[in-house]
Amino acid sequence: MTRFALKLEYDGRGFVGWQRQSNGVSVQQVVEQAGAHLCGGAPPVTVAAGRTDAGVHAEGQVVQAEFPDGLTTRTVRDALNFHMRPHAVTVVAAGVISDESWSARFSAVAREYRYVILNRAARPALDAGFVWHVRRPLDAERMQLAAIALLGRHDFTSFRATACQARSPVRTLDRLDIGRRGDRIEIRVGARSFLHHQVRNIVGSLKLVGEEKWPVERIAAVLAARDRAAAGPTAPPDGLTLMSVAYPLDPFAGQQ
Amino acid sequence: MTRFALKLEYDGRGFVGWQRQSNGVSVQQVVEQAGAHLCGGAPPVTVAAGRTDAGVHAEGQVVQAEFPDGLTTRTVRDALNFHMRPHAVTVVAAGVISDESWSARFSAVAREYRYVILNRAARPALDAGFVWHVRRPLDAERMQLAAIALLGRHDFTSFRATACQARSPVRTLDRLDIGRRGDRIEIRVGARSFLHHQVRNIVGSLKLVGEEKWPVERIAAVLAARDRAAAGPTAPPDGLTLMSVAYPLDPFAGQQ
């Protein structure tokens, strides 16, 4: 068998998330069922870089799977795309992995998410399901100012889901950029890895700063509290997209 | 009665287009049925700046309608949005029109459309319905080079739908910019007004230049032929969005 890396794009609506679950269709199940057609009927085991929740989208999720030797990256990509129809999941690129120790999850050195808030009175018609619709005007500059306290290496217990299974609550945020374009506020977050709900919990708190319910300094105080109850509510999944995952060597180099 | 201008955003999928038709739900019908709630039951008559076709989207369609005196722009916007649910149409802004001669259609001095081609092997998962998926690699620079021949005032008979009812085939293209960002090719087209299918017919021909089926010079020859049969096929509606309509005075100035 040959190990492949797959770059996936998906619309998180209609999925229970990346991971297989008994209560609905997961992205993992769709990929593995399509993969079975390449593996003589037995579905391959896949591992993803980010276990996105229900309703969370991906432009650049990376997944590993093993397929019989001799298949080209193009065949793997096109065959999976054929068999995954009509689900809103697509393999954008495939790459052959020669390093046996490579893991889509553990070899990743950086992950980037984007969160979009639609900040206007009118509900979304074009972006429904892809934005958090916030009617009250938000001050994106205040949000950016507050966000600075979260950059770097910290104990993120306050922004971690109670169900989070990571051994350590310590993570290093490398990027947290907030900008407004018209009525869209885009938040870009980058780190080597994230805790469960970390991005959505950060956004839920920054929104309270943006609408001036919280002073700018409160974000630093919430972080220091190391208490989930100190932070704001979890922002909805709709606005969140896993944009990219980076590795020491690009698994898709030279692939279309 | 007071005349209002409405700025509309809509997802063209699921509509037979802007204009009322017997074979399905139109955007116009949804707006007028919602407007009836403000007019004591009788639906208002609406006129749109651009009569978008089935499957064509809008971020900034402008529509006129008359509502009883005394309603604020906020009430008109919020009430229409409430009653248009769950259709994927929303009033982004409303403005009061005091000039009795103002027409959403005839007072417009500029219209801008965007056409998006997704140019990659994998079918779209996130942008399905909002892009024209073209697998064969396109050379956007060739397309831009060819497009220059269309700028300015010309007889656009070659790029006009045979069903087009405009009296004159002469139009003035003020803008035709083509650029690539990753696997997306974005085409921006601006003019005071357009012929029926003009943008989609132009895109359908430029795509043939992009894939090198046609030489760059062929676009100028097609224009000179003044013959619909000389041009390429009509590009699908999915990739097309009416972005904005401009007037001598902004009807939404000062409105959110």
Automatic annotation (TrEMBL), chains A, B:
Q: Where is the Pseudouridine synthase I TruA alpha/beta domain?
A: 146-248
GO biological process: what's one of them?
Answer: tRNA pseudouridine synthesis
**Any idea of its EC number?**
5.4.99.12
Q: Tell whether Protein biosynthesis is among the UniProt keywords.
A: no
- Origin superkingdom: Bacteria
A Pfam family cross-referenced in the UniProt record is: PseudoU_synth_1
> What InterPro entries does this protein's entry cite?
PsdUridine_synth_cat_dom_sf, PsdUridine_synth_TruA, PsdUridine_synth_TruA_a/b_dom, PsdUridine_synth_TruA_C, TruA/RsuA/RluB/E/F_N
Reactions accelerated catalytically: uridine(38/39/40) in tRNA = pseudouridine(38/39/40) in tRNA
Listed HAMAP family: TruA
User: How is the quaternary structure described?
Assistant: Homodimer.
The job of this chain, per UniProt, is described as: Formation of pseudouridine at positions 38, 39 and 40 in the anticodon stem and loop of transfer RNAs.
This protein is called what?
A: tRNA pseudouridine synthase A
Q: Which organism is it from?
A: Acidiphilium acidophilum (Thiobacillus acidophilus)
From the UniProt record, report the name of the gene that encodes this protein.
truA
